[in-house]
Amino acid sequence: MTHLETSTPRSGFARIAVGIDFSPSSRHALDVARTRFPGADIRLLHVTDARVTATPDLMGGMTPSLPDSGLLQAMEHADAGRLNELLMDNEDAELLIGDPVTGLLDASQRWAADLLVVGTHAKGSLEHFFLGSTAEKLVARSPIPVLTVRLGQ
Fold it and tell me: Among 16, 18, 84, 146, which residue carries the largest CB count within 10 Å?
């Protein structure tokens, strides 16, 4: 009798998308994905936040302004370089522009990810009230499982 190896890792998660925003918590999430899910295909996803061209309004929200194409191109170029530095052999990456929550969810689904891994940030209560948590929004809206990882725990 011969032993046949399967291409699916023991965890059952064969395709893992990892949201990267270059923070220490997202780098930790990437480390967790690499160590906890050996053998899985890993794709790093980064969304250059197009909302940087928005300005706060008096009601605590954001008012979009016309995107500065030069600024977005410079940010995208810088982010692409940083993302490539994080890649290991047999991993790939996708760089997107837009809203981080929508971008991560769309890219994960397009790639047919089995799991989305993201780091969480500690935010002040006022910032959390007005902006909410990206990780919370991902968990609430994602059709696939989301693993949130907090640095230091």
Answer: 18
Pairing of strands 115-120, 146-150: parallel
Q: Which residues contact 109 (CB under 8 A, 6 or more apart)?
A: 143, 144
* pLDDT tens sequence across 40-93: 999 999 998 776 555 566 666 656 555 567 767 787 888 888 999 999 999 999
Nearest to 133 by CA among 141, 142, 123: 123
> What are 46's strand-pairing partners?
95
Terminal alpha carbon distance of the chain: 44
pTM: 0.78
Cα separation, 99 vs 57, in Å, equals 18
